[in-house]
Design goal:
Helix content is 63%, strand content 9%. It has a domain of 134 residues. A two-stranded antiparallel ribbon has the order 1-2. A two-stranded antiparallel sheet has the order 3-4. It is built from 6 helices and 4 strands. The protein is flat, with a radius of gyration of 45 Å.
Length: 228
């Protein structure tokens, strides 16, 4: 009888001791796991989220200076556009300025000789072969060009030269203003460069669906939608 009781007491004691030790083992295991996680996090690189760049939208850039853009364009045409990262404007600018410079040179080259010949006509002077622009005067004489026509030709070359100079100055100023405005947008405003067009079929004279009769003609067409 006592042997059975002693055996039961021993079994109960061993069970209680095992249950008491189990949480301690779990606690030790949890501590080891936490230490391993800390060690791994210390040796691994920090996680940096990737930011997807949207090429169609430009956000304001407070460091982009419109004053720098306009000053650079006034010094060298197209420099402000390069500062604004708009290099594709530079060929257009120099093509326009080049045409105006060519017009200035052309009109100036023809204005001076005609001015000398106009002075000959004005003074009724007959130049000799040693006088400047004798060949031009002789050509006008052979074609029967009168004095007033020579004056008009001279004034025409002078006027076109002056207009070309004004055009050159105006184009220079316009490209500077364009550089300033573009820089101002980049500095202060969010811009979306999604300039897309969509063409969809439509009916030009679409009638009301609640009309009593739909006997009128139907004209098909195309609808153009521009996103900007």
């Amino acid at each position: 009888m006592y042997k059975y009781l002693l055996t039961l007491l021993l079994a109960f004691g061993l069970t209680a001791a095992a249950m008491a030790q189990a949480p301690k083992m779990d606690t030790v295991r949890n501590r080891k796991d936490s230490l391993n996680m800390k060690r791994d996090s210390a040796t691994s690189k920090p996680f940096v989220p990737r930011v997807k760049k949207d090429d169609k939208i430009y956000h304001p850039d407070s460091l982009h200076d419109p004053h720098k853009a306009v000053v650079r364009s006034l010094i060298v045409p197209g420099w402000g556009q390069l500062y604004n990262h708009q290099w594709y404007y530079v060929p257009v600018i120099y093509a326009g300025l080049g045409l105006l410079v060519d017009a200035i040179i052309f009109n100036e080259k023809n204005y001076k000789p005609n001015l000398i010949v106009a002075h000959y006509y004005e003074r009724a002077y007959t130049p000799t072969t040693t006088d400047p622009q004798y060949a031009l005067w002789a050509a006008y004489q052979s074609y029967g060009i009168q004095a007033q026509q020579v004056y008009d030709i001279t004034d025409s070359y002078r006027r076109d030269r002056d207009l070309s100079i004004l055009g050159l100055l105006g184009a220079w100023g316009i490209q500077a203003v364009q550089a300033y405005i573009q820089a101002k947008f980049q500095h202060s405003y969010t811009m979306d460069t999604d300039f897309t067009m969509h063409v969809t079929p439509t009916i030009l004279n679409q009638q009301n669906m609640f009309a009593q009769s739909l006997t009128g003609p139907v004209t098909p067409g195309l609808q153009l939608t521009i996103n900007f």
